[in-house]
Structure formats: structure tokens, C-alpha cells
Amino acid sequence: MSDLLWQKEGVRVDARIMRFLAGDDVLLDREFLLHDITASKAHVAGLGRIGVLGADEVASITRELDALAEDFRHGDFILDDTHEDGHSAIEARLVERLGDVGRKVHTGRSRNDQVLVATRLWLKEQLAALGDLCVAIAEVCLQRAGAESLPLPGYTHLQRAVVSSTTMWFAGFAEGFLDNAVRARATRDWLDANPLGTAAGYGVNLPLDRAFTTEELGFARMQVSPIYAQLSRGKFELGALDALASTLLDLRRMAWDLSLFTTAEFGFVRLPDEYTTGSSIMPNKRNPDVIEMLRASYAPVAAARVEIEQLLSLPSGYQRDLQLSKGSLWHGFTHGLRALDLMPDLLARLQWNEAAMRAAIEPSMYATDVAIEQAAAGVPFRTAYRAAAEAGSDTGSGRTPESSLAARVSPGGDAAPGLEILQQRLNGLKDMHRESN
Ligand code: ARG
Description:
Elements: H1 15-22, H2 25-49, H3 55-73, H4 86-98, H5 111-147, E1 151-156, E2 159-165, H6 166-190, E3 193-194, H7 210-216, E4 221-222, H8 226-231, H9 235-261, E5 269-270, H10 289-296, H11 298-311, H12 325-348, E6 351-352, H13 354-359, H14 367-376, H15 381-391, H16 401-406, H17 419-436
Parallel strand pairs: 3-4
Antiparallel strand pairs: 1-2, 5-6
Bound molecules: arginine.
């Protein structure tokens, strides 16, 4: 391992203990290294503005930081366990290239605010990606909701209940993913605050230009209290995972529907071939593995939430326990976003089996319509309800799914509100996205 930033004269470092402390942290730091470098550049520029570094020093450190980022992107610099962590690797590289000038980079900062700022920058990108994916999924759902409307049984308790339609199904998920997009954006705004300059958690005796680094790094505001900057670690990660988890809850229910709809028993949906796999032993199988993995994607996100929450039983101030939040966070977001990324294409190419869906709509599913129509004409609802129940499968004779749907106040029904309202929300989100880019 390269020299430790904090090593004391004459104290032996035990490799086994170091491995325990570092765990896979240094490998995880690969995910955050570019953000750490970006924040390091802002820090150094800020030190230049208050005269702690000369203009030449700022220029040479910045040049070497850029070179390190380039080398890292091209695989010419590999972050591995020859370093304690990514923060140490940055400083080691600057010292190797610039000697004493490199030894100045850490003036007025701590790895404690370094890890916070890198994580917040990283999460802002992840949440932007989450919001974009939610918008893309909502858009495909809305497009399909508007393009055709086929009858589909509506279930409660997994029992046939009333007539629904593919339009209603798609519109339902469209609205869900619009909500998720709004939540991703709100969460991004919530954690859009700069912790850089809070150092180890108590500030430093330098007039750091925190407004400058805030602006330079594109944060909306600064975290003013150094103590809160540390208290918020784990908490802002949980907030981000909440936004992801609520999205994946919708995805899980959608995947469950598709998992049922693709069985021979339902037979409502055919998946595109690429989204199915075969069996190693049963030549006849066409398995919906992708749907199952989409459904499973909620689990690592929920697990990440639990793990971070468990870590947060801590007094104030930085504690090394917090290091473990990084892996969970990365794992949760990586799984979650990969799953969501498949959805626009999959949804665009789902094939409905109209004959099977029509066949599954039995006459008794009009009973609610019949009772409500009579109630609207003045019969007490409970009386009309009993009459419809007694008529059993005769209730629906002469009715069609189309006539049942026409009177609904729902996207997919003819009465307002319709798909336009969802389309307007979608357009609004896309405009906001364009403005913020
Ligand atoms: N890997 C550490 C973490 O994620 C970086 C901060 C280390 N700070 C310290 N005082 N040991 O928390």
C-alpha cells in the first residue's frame, strides 16, 4: 500500500487490519473518483481565491487533476488497493507529479467533506437519470394508452371484477411514473447542497470561499452547518433510495402483472423474444426471466435502505461506520436504474392477445355497471345491487366492453378527464428537463 496520509512515525500498520478497514471501499471509490476530482478542482480554485495557493500552484494542480481524470477514464490509471481510498490516491498522484505543491491540496479539507461532496455530486446525476427514465417510461405508456384500446379484465383480489382496458392499464402506470419523476426531481433539489468546506465536521480556520465552490460545482445552495453536513450523511442517501424505491414499487407491480399475463392460463401478453430465455433441460420452455428480474430489482434497493438506516445509530460527528453506506447506495442505484432502463423498449413492444382478453371478460363483470345505472335512475343503490347479484351471469347480456368503458371518468373512458391531462403533465416535465439542461 502507498504511504498512508495519516501514518505516524514508528507505528506499524497491520495489513490484515487495513484490509478490514478498507474492505472494498477503495474499489467502490472508482465510482466516485471523477466526482472527487471535480470537487478537488473547485477546492483548489477556492484556495487560490483566498490567496492560500498561488495562481501557478492552482494551475499546476488543476492540470494534474485533469490528467488524472483522463488517465482514469482511459484505464491508464487504475484505482486499486495499493491506495487506502480514492481520496488518498488523488493526493498521492499530485505529490508524485508535483512534489510539495501536491502536498498543499488537502489544505482546509478533510476526507470527511470530500466523501460527502463526491457522493452528493454522484447522487445528483443518479437522480437526474432516474427522473429521465421515469419520464421515458411514462411517455411510452401514454403513447400506447392513446394508440389502441383493447378490453382487459380488471381484477380485484386477483378475481375478475369489472371491465378494464389496455388504455386504462397503460394510463395507470403512466401516471405512476409521472409521480415518480416528480419525486426524483424533488429529491434531487432536496439534496442539492454543497458540503465542501465543512472539513472534518467543524469547519476550519480559513476564510474558505464556500459560495464560490458552491457555484463552481453547480450546487443550488451550501450546507451552512458543518455539523449538519456530517449529520446528513446517510440521511440524504436514504432520501435518494426512497425516490428510487417508490419507482421500483410501481415497476414491481407492473412486472407482476406481466408475469401473470404471459402465462398460458391468462395468455394476454406476448413478450418480445429477446426478453425471454430458454431452459437448460426443458426444450419447450420460453421463460420470462427478464420480467422476474425486473420484479426482483426492488429487493436490493430495499436492502440498501435497511443497511444504511441500521448504520445511522450514531452520535453526531463523523464515524467510520458511515463508510459502509457507499456500497449499499451504489448497489441499490445500479440495480434499480439498470432495470428501469429496459422498460421503455419492453413496453413499446409488448404484444396483447385481444382474443384471449375478450374471452376472459364474462357477462357478470357488467353487474356493477347495471346496478349503478339503475341507481342513477333513482333505484336505491342497495336494491339495484341485490337485483344485479341475483341476475348473475344474465346481468351483462347485450353489453360490450366498449360500452362499459365509454361512460367512465378515467383515461380510457369517454368522459373527462382523459389522457390529455397526463399528456400535459408529461409535457411540463419534459419542458422542465429542457430548461435545467
Ligand atoms: N472511506 C471513508 C468514508 O467513506 C472516507 C472518509 C475517511 N475519513 C476518516 N476520518 N477516516 O467514510
